[in-house]
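PROTOCOL LOG
Step 1. Enter all chains and additional molecules of the complex.
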Amino acid sequence: MAKSFPSNANNRGNRGTLTERAYQALRRDIIDGIFAPCQPLRLESLKERYGLSFSPLREALNRLHSEKLVLSTAQRGFRVAELSRQEMWDTIETRILIECEALRRAMKNGQDDWETQMVAAFYSLSLCAERYPMTSGEASAAEAEELEARHRVFHCSLIAASDSQSLLHLAAQLYDQTERYRRPLLSTQRRFDQRDFQAEHKTIMDAVMARDPAATDLLAAHYRQTGTAIESALARLKTEAA
Amino acid sequence: MAKSFPSNANNRGNRGTLTERAYQALRRDIIDGIFAPCQPLRLESLKERYGLSFSPLREALNRLHSEKLVLSTAQRGFRVAELSRQEMWDTIETRILIECEALRRAMKNGQDDWETQMVAAFYSLSLCAERYPMTSGEASAAEAEELEARHRVFHCSLIAASDSQSLLHLAAQLYDQTERYRRPLLSTQRRFDQRDFQAEHKTIMDAVMARDPAATDLLAAHYRQTGTAIESALARLKTEAA
DNA sequence: ATCATCATTATTTTCGAAAATCAACCTTGC
DNA sequence: GCAAGGTTGATTTTCGAAAATAATGATGAT
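Step 2. Run joint prediction.
Step 3. Record the structure below.
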């Protein structure tokens, strides 16, 4: 069939090691906001929290550092990276630059199996989106995580046929960096919102399959729209908190 | 005056730690080809070679992994990443995409201090280039390293006034990844070749300062030309070896 | 001879203690 | 009162040994 999708965050082949577990756990806790931005991550308390020793924790933290989720200063340890609207938009715009170029190349090179993967990924995402809570309550963490995963696969599939490994690598990297911003959006959204998003995804996919050059514009607009949605979700959360 | 230039490779603030030393030493040895591509990097032998313990070595190797200089597989340790013409060109083209966009933005936003930095960086690079051996012999490792450093600062200064941190970050990242390919070029070049390069640099800088939109084309051409020069330098080295 | 199984060796990964470093507080002298 | 210097305590960083895992080679059965 086709190769699996690249993933900077996960595919490091370290599935079984404690370092990998530490990495996954820390990453989730940072993205879910268990650790607040700028909060220092003391080795001693992490050791206790996860029941691990220094070595795997340090290694995981270093990995998160290279993904810009944590900051580190020599001899003063690690702390959670801050979030800012400005950084979010900066990353979104760079993502647009990278992914639109990758998309152009994918549309040029893509064959049957690429299109097949895309359709499959879209369908898989649809199923997940339709399971979202209708009106009341928040989506569970597991639901949000599954949606996030399929969403990732879908966006990755759009550009998968690009001939450039480095573009795909950077796209994955930037996807990971924006996940942290997307999370509050996912947990507050309802099935209703998901349908809007899916409609956009469908429009983009159709344009891509038709090799319509305007597909890149649709993709860019989609990302900017997501950015705006995140901003209002954050505003909403802040209002509720107050 | 102005802020220092960003550098993914070095600026991690870990100056004094053993991890930092391990990182620098390993990086140099990989780039200089002391360790051949695909060669496994056994912890035990590295420990002996550098007189360090596991922890700093592992940390350094993980860092090099995220810079794509080494590969790692769970429970099977690390090995030097391979080199390929295809990967080189892929990286060069991506670099062009990123840097040209960054350059456009820099030309839009740049003020006096940006131009000043650029002129300074160019001059500093010129001095170094003029010290290169005229005809006979190879450039020393120290000479090549110094040239590389100033070259980096110059290219970084061109785009420094871009308003996007993420673009600058990616540009630095890609610069680091291409350094490994550039090295054989630097050690075989003579002052003669350096003058050609400096002429190109001058042309680019002048176009940039004049806010000429064609500056991006010049920059792209420069990188592609470098790629071609690397290819022929490699061919030459292979012929000499045989 | 071929294959599977087990023991041995090589190597990575993990641990917890020891050393090094930094921040804060507390003197002491002026 | 206040700066200089020193001491304590908290925290990171480093180490080398121990545990875990993969690779190699040997043994025996089919």
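Step 4. Note key features.
The beta strands of chain A are 40-41, 70-73, 77-80.
Chain A touches chain B at residues 12-17, 20, 55, 58-59, 62-63, 66, 72-75, 87, 90-91, 93-94, 97-98, 101, 164-167, 170, 174 (CB under 8 Å).
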